[in-house]
Amino acid sequence: MKELICIVCPRGCHISVDENMNISGNTCPRGKEYAINEMTHPTRMITSTVVIDGMELKRLPVMTSAPIPKDRIFDVMEEINKARAKAPVKIKDVIIKDVLGLGVDIVATRNIS
Amino acid sequence: MYDIIIIGAGVIGATIARNLSRYDVKVLVLEKNSDVGDETSCANSAIVHSGYDPHPGTLKAELNMAGNRMFAKECEELDVELKNIGSLTVATNKEEEDMLDKLYVDGMTNGAPIEIISAERLREMEPFVTKKATKAIWAPTAGIVNPFELVVALMENAMDNGVELKLEEKVTGIAKDGDVFKVETEKGAYQAGVVINCAGVNSGVINNYINEKKELIRPRKGEYYVLDHFPAPYVTHTLFSVPSSKGKGVLVSPTTHGNYLIGPSSEFVESEDDKGTDGTTLDNVIKEAYRLVDEIPMQYVIREFSGLRAYHDSGDFVINSPVPGFINMLGIQSPGLASSPAIGEKAIGMVRDVIELREKKDWNPRRRPLYRVNTLPVEERQALIATNPDFGQMVCRCEQVTKGEVIDCIHRNCGARTVKGVKKRVRPGFGKCQGGFCEPLIMKILCDELGKQPVDVNYSNRGSYILKEKTKGEK
Amino acid sequence: MNGTVKYDLVIVGGGSAGLAAAVAAYDSGIRSILVLEKDKYLGGILLQCIHNGFGLHEFKEEMAGPEYAQRFIDQVKERGIECKTNAMVLDITPDRKVHYSSLEDGYVVVEAGAVICSTGCSERTRGAINIPGTRPSGILTAGLAQRYLNIEGYMVGKRVFILGSGDIGLIMARRMTLEGAKVLGVAELMPYSNGLNRNIVQCLHDYNIPLYLHHTVKEIIGKDHIEKVVICPVDDNLKFIEGQDMTFEVDTLLLSVGLLPNNPLLEKIGVRMHPKTKGPVVNEDLETSIPGIFACGNSLHVHDLVDFVSAEGRLAGKNAARFLNGGLGDDTAVIDIAPLNGIGYVLPSLTHLDSIDDTVLKFRVKQPYNNVYINIKVNGQSVKRLKKPYLLPAEMENIPLKGLELQAFAGDKMEMTVEVEES
To answer: Contacts of residue B279 in chain C, CB cutoff 8 Å?
Structure first.
């Protein structure tokens, strides 16, 4: 039995999932979908910064272009920490292409020029 | 080799340094902290007491009365904020009224221009005084001063006139060889013919390095609340409770910048490092303050702090020279700030007993004034900005401080080296946000002006770093 | 520049509220607009909020803060609206003269036809909540640490405890963890969290960071830099329960203990202030007690989502334009609006009978509720009753009054109340 707090909406239903993936405690179908995802392949968006060279601003904020597997978060952080961006940068510019082969890019979230 | 070494750069050490700077002598000030005035002198009620209440015949009575009279000139010369708002000592019952009558007699003996006023007149003068008030002593010569500015200004002016200041030099021992004192610090040793002990809470320890007769200075802590400035009217005089054996009691007072202080408590503590606050003590402070006012706008509380008084068991200031050439300033607690100009003068007399003091021809008693940009009329402000656009660039929203003022306070003698140092000199961080908005900007200016890295900028003393390390890239 | 200039509309603050207000005013026909921003860049606090989750309502996509801000900066730029950065407003007079000072222009007095204040909010500090103990460095608000981390690129520490479960604190727990810090826990004085559920899950649970509800800081230990923090549970009267102290060795204590609207300039000129929100009292047009001076965004009341800040900014911009184009015409009967049972505050504080269709009530509840009704009454008589499956203090509620028929009350003095009705 696993307890989850649903984050689909702010209500925050407490959902229980048992060994046979029976789901209870949700009050809507979206909650059920969330619980199944969380149990089978939980993913998260990651936001961080990378070093940007030659600018007054020393950090460029970045984000994953899509959610990544939850258990790869710290691996992806290592890649982000190694990366360096060069100005000018525009929002959505790819800073790391296909990070760790996950099929997800690390993209800029601020214009810096 | 120095002529004179002053140990401690609080208001007493700084005043003596400035007074000595008018003579042709080589003076060194040793301060253990990273800035001047960082102990008792920056954590007190900021009152220039009228001098009416110390027991007649004590040093406190003599020096407070004299110091009060000297304050206006000193602050004028040094461009330090001083407001002569007067104080009211408020009685709320028969017992306290009897105390007031006794105090009045003492005050007259001391020579203070005070009067006893009725509840009616009291309320007319101070509408925010408690409705329970029955009688008060009005002391029109009492004032409030900016104590942060005062110590910095004294030391700056002393240095302008040739005094040397060494920070982060904690004295660890004193020896005397013939006529020469050797003062050892954590960093080195310095020699002088005269040593003046102005070490406040630590003055007992310093005395004990050289004097056979040991002295004990007990730290007595006072905790305060600070209220933000707010537009609605509130108390305009310093309101005192009727004093008790524990000290002057709790006061409610405006500050020179329109904030309000409520406090202090009074408890002996074990250690000179015990500068914390606690909820129970501060609850009592508020309870006591309600003896003075019926309303305390607690929604404007922006800070709590505590300071340590240097208490000597005599209850009085102890100023002596137990070893020829070694001068003690012990037990300088309240009214030490108010007495400081007179203590400084007394010290000169004592130094003169040991060495000859010849006046310099070129002594300048005046400090270059601060810019105080937010007090300037629009045209003057615009003219100043025309000379330097940094005076147009604001860095502190709460206290309306410009970049130009921050840079200026770094590059003066006795200039700011830390975030707190800037705060004490030109006020960013004193407001409602408590540095939340301006700290990164102040940090950047300190780095640019002093050639430091952000991780090397401290809030105050060594070890009080603000930033631990860079997140990534070259560490 | 150093002189006096004239604009129809001056907007104080170029963050999410101010930029949206500028765009809306322009789109309502106002061309002479000046936006004054104290920082070097437009965008306000969003620039340091690099996490995602912004824009679901405004743009139907999830963006990081700087990206969301950029959308509005672009809209402002496309319209050619004049913006000054590094320009701090120091005074607003009742006759709408706006004094500002900047590196580029010096000290300037702007004569404005209307003024919109969108000056954001400040974080409550240690002093405001009276945390006992010594005063070392290493104790700072979560927002300040966020700026150091996300903009300047510095860690304030590596072993962190967080007091308060506000959203910034939760977000910072995750950010500091990702950047290599150990976050030892979050303490919340109340028995429930003040942050959004998704932040509790994604910022704390994901990283096994414990949340200590009904706990607070009992003592700070450390001489120059913080060394230890002592946490203690509290009882229902919020008093410490003795003998249950927990001591954590830390180098940082972050505070996320509430936000307060920032309005010293309005307070100074006697604008009526709201005792609960700590922002100004406004009517349905977001006009303060001084005609022609409007307020919106977090300086009016603290919002949960930036999307709602932008919407409120637009409303202020639109109404400032109406004011400039011949007046707001608020001359029908006044309806005072007040919170009752369970409601912390409600805005606006008043509306007018013929503006009911344009009036949106915004409020927060004082505690969490499940399966209750929101009952809106006029002079004690229920005029609207809505079922709510849940209500949380962390969330701001919006209830439009469109279609409400109140003519029957006309002639009487009207007072509208909002309350939680438990079934």
So the answer is: 130, 132
